[in-house]
Specification:
about 160 residues, single chain
Length: about 160
């Protein structure tokens, strides 16, 4: 069974990560979620990645703040796509988590999305797009979703538009 694996560095990340879960549910994409750390539980992280791949994980999403090495640790142990969500809230205005996620050494890529909620949502959308490469029903769902987004934008605009 193909699914998306979502890892987060601590429970405090869940309020933002659940935004990604909602997007995956909207597209009927199966997922697993767990808390694990590149620093506090490196063995658990490595074992989970191996087991998840054996069960059918096709994409990994990793959310972490501060040093934010989780996405890189995941990428070091898989050849599947890894999407990193830098988490907000550190003493360095979230720049530490952004740089830690985006600055990977060549050959071990992590696709990094925006910091926080927008990043969680976009990571889920990107995971769906990756799965859609081999799933035409997901392609159709993505197209329908974009049409709904456009319609909502136009409806919102209609409530405030002023033209000369």
């Amino acid at each position: 069974m193909k699914f998306v694996s979502i890892l987060m560095g601590s429970k405090s990340d869940y309020d933002i990560v659940k935004e990604a879960l909602g997007i995956l549910e909207k597209f009927d994409v199966k997922y697993e979620v767990l808390i694990t750390s590149a620093h506090r539980s490196p063995q658990r992280t490595q074992e989970y990645i191996k087991n998840a791949e054996e069960k059918g994980a096709k994409v990994f999403i990793a959310a972490a703040g501060m040093a934010a090495h989780l996405a890189g640790a995941v990428a070091a142990h898989t050849t599947k796509p890894v999407l990193g969500i830098p988490m907000p809230g550190s003493n360095l205005a979230s720049m530490d988590s952004l740089f830690s996620t985006v600055q990977m050494p060549s050959g071990i890529p992590v696709a990094t999305v925006a910091i926080g909620k927008a990043g969680a949502i976009n990571a889920a959308y990107l995971a769906v797009q990756i799965l859609a490469i081999e799933d035409e029903s997901l392609v159709q769902k993505l197209l329908e979703d974009r049409q709904k987004q456009q319609e909502k934008l136009i409806q919102d605009s209609n409530t405030i538009e002023v033209f000369l």
